[in-house]
Amino acid sequence: MSNISKKDLHNAIITGLNSTDNKVVLDSINQLRKDGKTEDITLLLDLMISNSNTEIQSSIHKFLADLKNQDSDKIILEAIANEKYITIKKNLVSICWEASVDFSKYITTFVDLLIESDFETSFEAFTVIENLTEKISEESKPVEMKKLKDAIPEVSPEKKGMLHETIHIIDQL
After folding, report:
1. N or C: which end of the chain has fewer CB within 10 A?
2. 125 vs 50, 55, 60, 62, 116, CA distance in Å?
């Protein structure tokens, strides 16, 4: 058996992600768990929007929800803001509370998503805020609380309760 280099292995995984055989794609996703790099997250996000197979979608979501590398926060937040990923935005936001990554420094993003998004994405943003474990800066608390208070009259009735609750949550962080 030949000794395959890490670079060759990584290239084989990337090739597998682009396969038309769903089993090969799933095997490549699983291989990324062991041999992937943080930058590979973008490849998985692209695969989420290009491959509608539910098993592949689920496998990618589980992969992303298992993230532990703090450097992955920037990639996920950039994807949430990128129109290219609008069809998976709700999934991306849910990953932010499922993953073992601290997103507390992005409180502004999640407050904005809570206010401006459809109900399902707003609920995911609310859940991210609800699950923040790190303190947010004392300077940002009043800013975000005011933004929420100002938005209450403008949002749909089903979102009003979430905004009120978020004000309370932020006050406690």
Report:
1. N
2. 24, 25, 20, 18, 10
